[in-house]
Amino acid sequence: MSVYHTDDTGGSRQYNFRRIQTTTIRFQVKAGHDVAICLSSDNEEEPEDMYEIFIGCWEGGESGIRRKKHDDVIRVETPDILSEDEFRTFWIKIQRGTIKVGRSGQRRAFMRYTDPETLLHVTWYGYSTGWGAEGDWVFPDDEDTSSSSSSAMSSSDSEAEDINNLEERPIQYKRPARWVPAAGGYFPRHPVSGGEGPDGEVYVGMAFHEGEFVLGMVVPDQGCCYIPYAGDAISKELYFVLSNPASVTLSWEPCSLGKVPPGALQGGRTGDGESLFIGRVSVDGIVAIGKVHPSHEVCYVPYGGSEHSHKNYEVLCVRNINVKV
Predict the structure, then answer these.
(1) CB 3.0–4.6 Å: which of 25, 47, 174, 231 could bond 246 by disulfide?
(2) Where are stretches of biased composition, namely Low complexity (predicted)?
(3) CA neighbor of 119 nearest in space, from 45, 41, 21, 47
(4) What are phi and psi of 47, to 5 degrees?
């Protein structure tokens, strides 16, 4: 996942623009103060008409929404909302004529504005830092934008292109699943569900921790992925979500003692190179998702703030892979 840097632009607010992908913009930012996002119908250097969302401004203690560069329509106290030492995750939702701004793990917005006129039709957003602050940014929607950009192909991509150029092509199969980078509650399309968790539906996730990719579960309402590791349930704001864009038939199959059924989806490797698989268990009717560790003969899952091991579990398997039409 790429990290973008913004310099201190003083009070001029020079924005770097990105196309809006969905009705919810999610981002992570690491800056001491004076973070700004603008919403505009174009990506000109200085849009004539826009909304500006300020976070941690006015000496770092307030946030607000500005209309047409000079009308502060909302202003609220938000002490310590930013940090120059760690990333903080935010979301901006544009829906039904209203702009909402919130923090990761909090469903309730800390700023909300309904334009008394018709809400400006926004298709671009820009990001900036100023008034003595620089910033680093992460955008989960990079996965969507990067897929359409030109880049060097791997050898397998090149081979696929050669096949596609053939006049008579052999049968091609749909990819069963893929890991999509995400952060702060962001979700790709077609996420793989694990069932009902303690706070609603949970999804198959994975996060990088201590040099390993560790399987776990994404809890949307909390904006994070919980992974089981060294006896603890660890919360990660940067993670991956398992997506099934081709709608391949997946199923959870019962197993035990470190074994996995035919068609089991490998979910990662240990630092020693051992294959791990995607597993889940049900505790008092509540689902927890984690990793099947064959040599340990258990499935490790996070719940209740700790890592728990279970000898009986279910494994995510591919039942049927369709051909491309």
Answers:
(1) 174
(2) 146-157
(3) 41
(4) -60, 145
At residue 40's C-alpha, the angle toward residues 35 and 44, to 5°, is: 95
Q: What are phi and psi of 209, to 5 degrees?
A: -150, 130
**pLDDT score at 63:** 96
pLDDT tier at 10, thresholds 50, 70, 90? confident
Q: Give me the pLDDT at residue 146, please.
A: 38
The candidate with the shortest Cα–Cα distance to 65, out of 103, 114, 104, is 114
Which range, of 10-14, 257-261, 319-323, averages the lowest pLDDT?
A: 319-323
Per-residue pLDDT tens over the stretch 79-112? 999 999 999 999 999 877 789 999 987 778 999 9
Q: Are 24 and 84 in contact (CB under 8 A)?
A: no
Whether the Cβ atoms of residue 209 and residue 268 lie closer than 8 Å to each other: no
Contacts of 74 (CB under 8 A, 6+ apart): 64, 65, 111, 112, 113
The per-residue pLDDT for 83 is 94
Residue spans of beta strands (DSSP E) within 154-248: 178-183, 193-197, 200-209, 212-219, 224-229, 232-236, 238-243
Distance CA 299, CA 311 (A): 6
Q: State both tokens at 82.
A: 């930013």
β pairing state of 212-219 and 24-30: unpaired
Per-residue tokens: 244: 């099934």
3-state secondary structure of 291: strand
